[in-house]
């Protein structure tokens, strides 16, 4: 009988163990599943990929910066060349304003001035500064002021030297007389 009691006891213990395994254990329910271990090859791949992306971004920034510098240097060179040609424009304008009896001479100066103006306009140069325009301190240099009841306040009365700009860059400010 002792064997049967031992067998029954063992059977009961086995059934209790099966029931315990089937029922969820509070410890197991609260425990998070174990994180999968990181693969060293995946870590190396991610590090290399990150380094590659950083180099690609640096190169893209370098490319954009050099394009911007190249465009700026072209614009600065164009403005510098224009600044050196402006005395020729001024002299032609003075020659046109001088009275002369020689019609052929006057016609030649007019044609030269027309061609120079066309070339400057083709280069994207804007010539500004006309009497009657509103005064803008960002574009005009007021060298004289005059009291005038006929003109509105801050209006250009007389232009001594025209202004030139390329795009938003002012190459030479217009010298003007302004009404107060």
Would you mind describing this structure in some detail?
There is one protein chain. The chain is α+β, with helices and mostly antiparallel strands and 180 residues long. It has 4 helices and 6 strands. A 3-stranded antiparallel beta sheet has the order 1-4-5. A 3-stranded mixed beta sheet has the order 2-6-3, with no helix packed on it. β4 (163-166) and β5 form a beta hairpin. The longest helix is centred in the middle third of the chain and has 58 residues, at 40-97. 7% of the residues are buried. The model has no long low-confidence stretch (mean pLDDT 86).
Helix and strand element order: HHHHEEEEEE
Give unreliable regions as ranges: none
Number of strands: 6
Q: Tell me the distance between the termini.
A: 129 Å
Report on the biggest sheet.
Answer: 3 strands, antiparallel
Number of helices: 4
For this structure, the quaternary state is single chain
Mean pLDDT: 86
Strand content: 15-25%
Rg from alpha-carbon coordinates: 44 Å
Helix content: 55-70%
Shape: rod-shaped
Structural class of the helix and strand makeup? alpha+beta
Neighbour order of strands in the largest sheet:
1-4-5
């Amino acid at each position: 009988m002792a064997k049967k009691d031992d067998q029954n006891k063992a059977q009961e213990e086995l059934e209790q163990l099966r029931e315990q395994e089937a029922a969820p254990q509070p410890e197991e329910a609260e425990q998070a599943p174990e994180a999968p271990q990181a693969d060293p090859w995946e870590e190396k791949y991610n590090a290399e990929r990150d380094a590659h992306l950083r180099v690609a971004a640096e190169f893209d920034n370098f490319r954009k910066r050099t394009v911007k510098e190249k465009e700026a240097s072209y614009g600065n060179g164009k403005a510098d060349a224009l600044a050196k040609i402006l005395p020729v424009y001024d002299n032609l304008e003075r020659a046109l304003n001088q009275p002369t009896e020689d019609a052929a001479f006057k016609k030649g100066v007019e044609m030269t001035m027309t061609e120079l103006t066309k070339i400057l306009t083709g280069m994207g140069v804007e010539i500004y500064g006309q009497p009657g325009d509103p005064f803008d301190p960002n574009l005009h240099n007021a060298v004289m002021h005059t009291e005038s009841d006929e003109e509105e306040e801050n209006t250009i009365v007389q232009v001594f030297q025209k202004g030139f700009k390329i795009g938003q860059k002012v190459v030479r400010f217009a010298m003007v007389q302004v009404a107060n």
